[in-house]
Amino acid sequence: MTKLLETGLYRLIEGRHGRFLANPQDRYMGKSMLTYGEFSEQEWTLLNQLIPNGGCVIEAGANMGCFTVPLAKKVGAGGLVYAFEPQLLVFQQLCATLALNDLVNVQAFNAGCGDEPEWLNLIRTNPAVLNNFGGYSLEKLQAGQSETRVRVEKLDDAVDPPRLNLIKADVEGMELATLRGADGLIRAFRPTLYLEAHAEDAPALIEHLQALDYDMHWHLPMMYNPANHFGEAKNIFGGTVSFNLLATASERKLDIKGARKVSGPEDHPQTWPKRTKDDD
After folding, report:
1. Cα–Cα distance between 151 and 35 in angstroms, integer?
2. What is the rounded distance in angstroms from the CA atom of residue 53 to the CA atom of residue 44?
3. For residue 256, pLDDT beyond 80
4. Is 102 exposed, middle or buried (0-12, 13-18, 19+ CB in 10 A)?
5. What DSSP character marks residue 274?
6. What is the mean pLDDT of residues 188-212?
7. CA distance 93 to 19
8. For residues 10 and 23, is the Cβ–Cβ distance under 8 A?
9. How confident is the model over 44-51, as a mean pLDDT?
10. Mean pLDDT of 57-75
């Protein structure tokens, strides 16, 4: 493992896709970057196939930039990435990482994404205490909480892209609101959508995508990659996977390999029958 900086709150490392500022107290993204030099590489393997050089991407919930950096490098100088991250300290971490990689084709926003412009509350976190910094959801403001307020934007109002190939959203339950706020962009450009979808949120999300005439597949990338950048054999994440919906405009007829087609609103990986040895 190559660490360029080992003092202070963050660690600067040379990862698979570039230089990253990683927080050792972040139990998922930060820990993965420090241990493996990458995060959810199986997820990136799929995303890499969905965007062309010169393309345009919206990333809602960019976090520390694990995907922002390779996305920006893939679309290249003629492309553009719009990255939204509501947590102030994580946003600052993201911006530092973008600068470290000389990425001038990213427009970064310290904001959340939703279906109407508003101010929401986000729990204030201590970056020096072990936590999952990507696991916080936005909530309605309560009295006396203005010091933690975060601006939420409709994507239709926040950006005006010349083209749009992909919307990636990992926004802790606000995926549907994000899509509603991007309705004009989706209808105009028919981009591919890659969305985190927990069991409680999936039915409404799937129904919305069906109404937009999108085909959907479940993509379940493992957190641990045996062929990781640092060659680390120890699996610190066990069998942890992400539950992601890959949605493609029906007219595109993409050949999706390694993903299971969604059968309907009640179809979620957590409801699938457990496999046994007799199933093999």
Report:
1. 33
2. 15
3. no
4. exposed
5. P
6. 96
7. 12
8. yes
9. 94
10. 98
